[in-house]
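Module 6 notes. Inverse folding takes a fixed backbone as the condition and produces residue identities as the prediction. Think of it as a translation problem where the source language is geometry and the target language is the twenty amino acids. Below is one complete input and output pair. Work through it position by position during the lab.
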């Protein structure tokens, strides 16, 4: 037997604004972390002879990946 529960939350204005601020903060934090990770992966993706030293930051292979845990 499968039982589904549905909850409805009735919020007033103050908690709604607080939740919106939290969501904006979390979204910005996630976007920053994702950008940092993709930049790190992109810097290791190509061989040195194919990278532009002006536009790519080349990191050594033992440089740790960004971790957020």
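Target side of the pair, the amino acids:
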């Amino acid at each position: 037997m499968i039982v589904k529960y549905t909850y409805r939350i009735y919020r007033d204005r103050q908690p709604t604004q607080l939740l919106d601020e939290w969501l904006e903060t979390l979204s910005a934090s996630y976007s920053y972390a994702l950008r940092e990770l993709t930049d790190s992966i992109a810097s290791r993706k190509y061989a040195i002879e194919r990278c532009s030293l002006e536009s790519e930051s080349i990191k050594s292979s033992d440089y740790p990946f960004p971790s957020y845990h």
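Reference fact for the lab report: The mean pLDDT is 78.
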